[in-house]
Amino acid sequence: MIILLDAMGGDNAPDANIKGAVQAINEVKSTTEVLLIGNRDVINQRVKELYGKDDISEISDRLKIHHTTETIEMEDTPTVAIKHKKDSSMVVGFNLLKEGKGDVFISAGNSGALLTGATLLVGRIKGIDRPALAGILPAYKSRLLLIDCGSNTNCKPINLLQFAQMSSIYLRNTFNIENPAIGLLNIGTEETKGNELTRESYQLLKDNAEKLNINFVGNVEGRDAFSGKIDAIVTDGFTGNIFLKAVEGIGKLVKRSLKESLKKNILSILGSIPCLPAINRFAKTMDYKSYGGALFLGVKKPVVKAHGSSDEELFRFTIKQAEQFVENRAVEKMIEEFEKTRETKLV
Amino acid sequence: MIILLDAMGGDNAPDANIKGAVQAINEVKSTTEVLLIGNRDVINQRVKELYGKDDISEISDRLKIHHTTETIEMEDTPTVAIKHKKDSSMVVGFNLLKEGKGDVFISAGNSGALLTGATLLVGRIKGIDRPALAGILPAYKSRLLLIDCGSNTNCKPINLLQFAQMSSIYLRNTFNIENPAIGLLNIGTEETKGNELTRESYQLLKDNAEKLNINFVGNVEGRDAFSGKIDAIVTDGFTGNIFLKAVEGIGKLVKRSLKESLKKNILSILGSIPCLPAINRFAKTMDYKSYGGALFLGVKKPVVKAHGSSDEELFRFTIKQAEQFVENRAVEKMIEEFEKTRETKLV
């Protein structure tokens, strides 16, 4: 297996990307290679400084570089960047993936460009109008899939129906959840609640869930979303991104407040020592980094969006997660299942 | 001062409402009365069971009942309920407020009906098109005002501009923040980010902030909202409610996970005892109940929306908060300031 890694994307590139790959290479299968896509000189200069080697292949012969000269920046307009920066690490990554020269592509770069590239260069699965970003959040003794996390700002009810179908297939095949519970993110549980999109999506989901093999559990409010009883919540990319970042913001506040509460006085500091393992266990549950990258569901090949602020630890984790994703044949299974329901008449 | 309390609204009514009032009456000023609005027989029967008294006035002569026969239920359609349930605790509460027979009205009942009632029965402040619910969330060593928390599902840019102006005035006068930092809740910080509403609102805010005395700090993402550097975030009621409930859901998860992490084994349980004060301090920071009710900003008289699942503790706190709200003359000051800027030409 070849994992394609955009070495130039993300807030901490290329150091975090390189270090994450170096760490991961000993933890993935011995037949798995990581191909770092980016400027060879820049990468090897960092390798020299970080590891004292002239070339990354001296660290492991399963670490390789594919040389590119351009980088898509966060400020770039997605479609323009994808069309014009032909030798950027992201565009080259997508092309390698498309040509079968790699099995999965990971990037922590510009999200908009990543979606545009995935759709334009790799292509959509037949039957899916809009691919979407599926992120994994913590939930009580479980996890919560959130789709769309931010790739499609404006959505129609049919998109949300497809998101529900994609997450069902994905959760069944990747997490072995037999009958995943899919909810519609809304501001109330009654079917009349919400805006035009949620009201129409509710009806479409309710009327078509059974024939599309979706276990639709109705409207779900954020306050109940993390109970562990819901496996996925579907929403448009604007609302999903607001939700995701609220969770992230509160996570940061929790970490900071807990730390400072414990440091408040010398007695608390001493007192906190015996319970540090428990608090660390708790912090790990709450840390989004434990949950890895988000997947672009709906494109023909596996594309993983690593967190923009990924550090080496998160790249390491995301690389291992991407390997798992390929092993599970999640994309192939999605193509097969959408093929089966393509002729289904919706009501 | 007379505080009007809807005794029949909320998930735990009337017990929590009664108990909260009984607790609060000894903590508010000796000239403050609480008037419980609801069915006299039901209230006194509960008073009998809870306190062994025949009438609530036997507990304190500053606790009184205003008898009503109807209750607005959570399932009721707001406008229909407000128009037809003339003898409901909520409609009667609004009428007493309007007639000056009380200084502030608190209800934990149906939010939609509360907004409809506040707007139709009490009336909007001149210059404000849509009153909105302003909630208070925790932030780092501070608090974050979120407006609109859920009263106006669909908003226009002009509404968001007015929300920004209202929160500025409110924060200046109630929390003594000289130049409150107001952000627009969005999915990115660049001005081109977001949906049509956020992009247009950004421009309107940017162009008119100075003349309306708003310290507009631009787009704010949820991940940065709780840093303590932002005093208020403005958004439409749908997005605001999604945000609010995400925070609430994560808060519940945090509490549950932390508790269970500490109980994981006997060593952690023993270990956690010395740091319990610190953990309790932390839990208090994170608990939305410490932040009380949300205010309907933009109506001519003070209206407080207590949390639907308020318990006695939260009612107690909300009653004290409402007293403070009246003392601060927050509504009168808002009327005065909007009067001053009414002739301002927007660009």
Automatic annotation (TrEMBL), chains A, B:
GO terms for cellular component: cytoplasm. The keyword Glycosyltransferase does not apply. Pathway: Lipid metabolism; phospholipid metabolism. It is found in: Cytoplasm. Its EC number is 2.3.1.274. GO terms for molecular function: phosphate:acyl-[acyl carrier protein] acyltransferase activity. It catalyses: a fatty acyl-[ACP] + phosphate = an acyl phosphate + holo-[ACP]. Keywords: Acyltransferase, Cytoplasm, Lipid biosynthesis, Lipid metabolism, Phospholipid biosynthesis, Phospholipid metabolism, Transferase. Coiled coil: none annotated. It is an enzyme of class 2 (transferase). The keyword Transmembrane helix does not apply. Its main location: cytoplasm. One of its GO terms (biological process) is fatty acid biosynthetic process. InterPro entries: FA_synthesis (IPR003664), Phospholipid_synth_PlsX-like (IPR012281). It comes from the Bacteria. Homodimer. Probably interacts with PlsY. Catalyzes the reversible formation of acyl-phosphate (acyl-PO(4)) from acyl-[acyl-carrier-protein] (acyl-ACP). This enzyme utilizes acyl-ACP as fatty acyl donor, but not acyl-CoA. PANTHER family: FATTY ACID/PHOSPHOLIPID SYNTHESIS PROTEIN PLSX, PHOSPHATE ACYLTRANSFERASE. Belongs to the PlsX family. NCBIfam families: plsX. This is Phosphate acyltransferase. It comes from Candidatus Merdicola faecigallinarum. The lineage of its organism: Bacteria, Bacillati, Bacillota, Clostridia, Candidatus Merdicola. The gene is plsX.
